[in-house]
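Table S7 (text form). Paired inputs.
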Amino acid sequence: MFHILPKSRRWYHTRLHSCSLRSVQFAACLISISAILVGCARLSVSPQSAQRPDPAASLHAIESERFVPAWIVVNDFTFSPLSVSENSSPVYRAKELLLSNSEEDPRVKIARDAAASLSDQTIRRLDKVGLTAIRIRADSEAKMPGNNLVVTGRLINVDEGNRLTRIAFGLGAGEASLDTQVHVFRVAQGEWAEVLAFSTHADSGKLPGMAESVGFGFLFIGPITMLSSISDAASAGQKIYSTQMDVLAAQTGDQIARYLSQYSADQGWIPPSRAKSVNLATD
């Protein structure tokens, strides 16, 4: 026996079912965002010509190149605050204005954190291929005596893009990017000889955002305003909303370590089977 619900109750149950489906869609999108942020970055390494050392001033460093270095020293990359662009989302700007109580330039913190992530990932990857590496922090005055390979560099572009736009719309909108210039030196008895020079590029890619996944209509007029929900979830989770630059920095460090592994294999320091492939810009 069927019972016919009054019109108002039928409408309520229909709306409830629709909202439930949309909530499931929304939750699924939020769960996938962190995977998207990690997986969609585009990476490349562009080899450059190393500066030819002066034999009269760098003889010991030049002659030591054929020997396995005691350490691979990764110096935290330098930067200028002028090369850093903060997240341009108005939600982020408002939050910083209302909640920030630090006198430190936020651009300095963004770049310093990126440099730390880059160094840490480079060291981890080098350790995995059998090369002994150590990080020298930007504020450290430590010196590494002996015969070493020293990795130095500069963050030349650190752009957080617009996180909210990137998550919501994707397809390159609000894209984040990180560019570096890297110089590698052989150091022995106080002498320096450049052996590698290259640049790197990483960006957040052009995967579709949540609007393409659940529809523009729901994005703006759904029972929960999704833009607000993204902001709330991001502020609570941080992994979704504020770590794209850390992702790009870590993946840049991975590419740097891969390039160094190929150089090390060419020098005979590690077996060729341990050398890792690199995303060359010419590929």
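Next pair, protein 2 of 2.
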Amino acid sequence: MAPRGGASVQSSAEILKQKRMRRVFLGALLLLGVWVAVHCRQLFVFADSETPMKETVRKLADRIAGIPGLHGALRLDWHPDEKWSEGEATHWLDTLQEEFDRHALQMSEEAAAVPLTVYAVVTPTQVVLTAKTRVGERDEVRIVAVPRTSLPPVELHVAPVRLERQLIYESAERILDASSLWNGSEGGLAVLLYKNFEVLALRVDAKGEVRQSVTLGVADLKPVRDPHAAIAPHGDQVTVQLWGQACDFSWVSPAEAKCHAEKAPAIGKSVWRIDTVLASPCDEANWAISQPGSDPTVGDVLHLVPDGATQGGSADVPSEFPGPVLSVNAGQNTSSALVVARNLRTGNYEVYRITLACGD
């Protein structure tokens, strides 16, 4: 009886062991299946996201290859949209060249080859490719387009940043512009005011206290409804750009300010800066600040986008202000800028310091 009982116990242990091994195997198989499904899905999505672009380029190559009387070598003259980064333009160019090869289009870099000019234009809704060449005495043009929503987003290899904002000065009087004084650790601002049809330059310390006020006696300065101006301090010397006038003075001897007539900017163009670029403190990327809107009755949203990206993309860093933005000016370091805006709730004019910082 004992041997039979021992055999029964041994058989039960083996059965339990086999069940545990089966569970482990099934669990591992399930995890493997999930990984394969996710991985294959990622591959499928990536391949599918490339399909609209490749299909568009294929259509263009089809239409070029079908041009009557087109023979001999062609020299590609590629004109990508200026909004594209170098990497995105190169990706489209590589795809074009692959399709031309598949369609047996003879491409050459020789100057004697017939030019095949291809333009890429990005509209708010489409990417439009236009190919132009000449056959005999006639021009041949072929056009294809693809919705932008069907194209994959552009991947930019930039470190994530966030935008920090600090209110550093405000006034009930209209602030035309503000600039850093560029005097090292002492800090401070040069602020340009428009008060009772007069222009005043203020020297403001790092605590926001006015240390000096200079009235610029500008002769023949005509009143305007929407004045814009720029102030640029260089040590003790200051240059002020107004509408139709320019002034130079010194904080040391402000009574000797000299102003002279200057050609006013064209209609619709302000004298203040719109090309301020911030340098990322996290990598070598430069971030451009979008041009503010023109509606004085609504708040503005400034957009910072890295080189090669477009506004509204995944890399876009927006910053909303309580009113219209009036000027943007570089700060003391390359990662910051000064923004003048009007607060529609209080009616005051405000100066903000915006700064790029690392991290989301």
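The chain has two helices and 20 strands.
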